[in-house]
Amino acid sequence: MTQPQGPGSPYQLLFADDVHEPPSLPQSFLDIYPGDWQLPQPRDGRPYTYSNFGMSRDGRISFNEPGQEAAVHVTLGAAHDVWLMALLRMRADAIMVGDTTVRLEGEHFWTSAFIYPPDGPAFQAQRLAEGYKPLPLLVLLTLNGDINFAANCFKRSDLHVVVATTDRGAQALADVQCNAQLDIHSFGDETADLTRMAQMLHSDYGINNLLCEGGSRVFANMLDAGLIDEEFVTWCPTLVGRSADHQRPSYTEGVAWMPGNNPYSKPLSLHRGGDYIFLRTRVRYP
Q: pTM score, two decimals?
C-alpha cells in the first residue's frame, strides 16, 4: 500500500484519553498522527457525525471581508491542518456543508486528495482498504435553494450530491440540471428537520460516518439537534477580532443556548503541529 508522507513532521501527541487496542489506523498513519482515531458505531438510526473546523485563537472562523471570507485566511493553509482534514475526509461516507461554504469555495472538491494532493494516493488506498466508496457523498444544506451551481463539485459526473432543503428550496431547484448525480430532498416547510435528514442518510444512502465541515450555522443547528457526536478543532495562531463595523463569525452562529441546556464537549485527545493545536472532543447533551 502507498505510504503517507505526512505534513513535514509528525504531530506531537499531548494526551489521549480514548485509546483502544488494536489501533484502527495502520502504523504508517500512526507514525504521523499518534494516538489513533476509533470510529464509534452509528446509533439512534443515524450516522456517527463528526465536525472539523479551523478557529482563530479568539474563536473566529472567518475574517468575513470581501474576498477574504474563506477559512484559509484564518488557518493560513498550514500543512498540519490540511493533512488532518484529509485524514478526516478519508473515513467519511459523506461530507456535509452549507450553501455558503460552496459559494465561497467554488473551486473545491470535498476529497482527501483535493485538500492534500501529496498524500492523495495514500489516503485513497487506505480509504478503499477500509471498505469505503471511492468518493464520499456530498450533502449540501440550503434553506432557499440558493446554490452556486457553477461550483466545480457539480461538474463531476462521478460525484453524488444530496441537497437537503425546505419545500421552497426544493421548488426553486426543481428544474436544475448538472453533471453530478443530484438528489433533492425536502425536510420541512420553513426549516429543515435535521434529525430526519440524518436518519434518511443512514437508511436510504447507507451513510455510517458523516463529516460536518460547516459553516458555523450548519454546525450550530446540528449541535442544537443533538446530532454532532465528536468535534475536531484546529486552534490557529491567528487573532481575528471583532467590532461593530467588522462582524466576524464565531465557531457557532444562529443558536443561543441557555445555561443548563447547552451542549458540553469532553476532550478526548490533543495534538500539536508547529504553532497549531488540534483538539478532539466527544459531545454530551443535557
A: 0.95
